[in-house]
Amino acid sequence: MAIKRKPKKKNTVKKKNFRISRFLLKALIYFVTISIAWVLIYRVINPPITWLMVQRNFEETDKTEKSVKRKWINYKDLSDNLKRAAIASEDARFMQHSGFDTKAINEAYRKNKSGKPMRGGSTISQQTAKNVFLWPHRSWIRKGFEAWFTILIEALWGKERILEVYLNVIETGPHLYGAEAATQYYFKKSATSLTKRQAALIVAVLPNPRRWSPGKPTAYINRKVNAIIRYMNYSRIPE
What we know:
By secondary structure, the chain is mainly α. The chain is built from ten helices and two strands. It has a domain at 70-232: Biosynthetic peptidoglycan transglycosylase-like (Penicillin binding protein transpeptidase fold). 58% of the residues lie in helices and 2% in strands. Strands 1-2 form a two-stranded antiparallel sheet.
């Protein structure tokens, strides 16, 4: 009587692992291809909407106040004062790093570890990648995607496009996105012609533009504005 041989478990496991590996490899190739194409499209086409805009829209309970105010201004038309203020406040080494400011990250880590108020080390490039391509909530997964898209926009956009997109998509107040919407709302003028103080006021509230207002600056915001103005003279901007 012939003895039936049981299928070898090793072969079954190998086949299963091979199928999983092949699936993961395909998924990785698709992700890389799509993300590169996405970044290249936004190199020439302005991002029409961000995840944060969608989220804020769903969060609002007052339907009459939901209209998003936003108007795109090309980089060359944006006030140089605004560009310098953004770099002075958000990313002093913007023109030197390649997307990640290791010195700022280490400084933030030391301060946070010592128990001082939490401080981030994100560059303008990282903030742009997060705002344009990713969802708002923090997680290690999102941080990984943020790093990937930061590398891509640094390589495929360059500093001028990064700063242009950043200044046009950031949340600048309730229902306000981009510098133009903020300056029109708070100063009744265009972001093409801002004084140093006006530019510094717009940028000073960026950590929490729904709490602070350029139109009614607190003592803390005024101190921050004065510091930004001092550093603006040393800020290099993309030409």
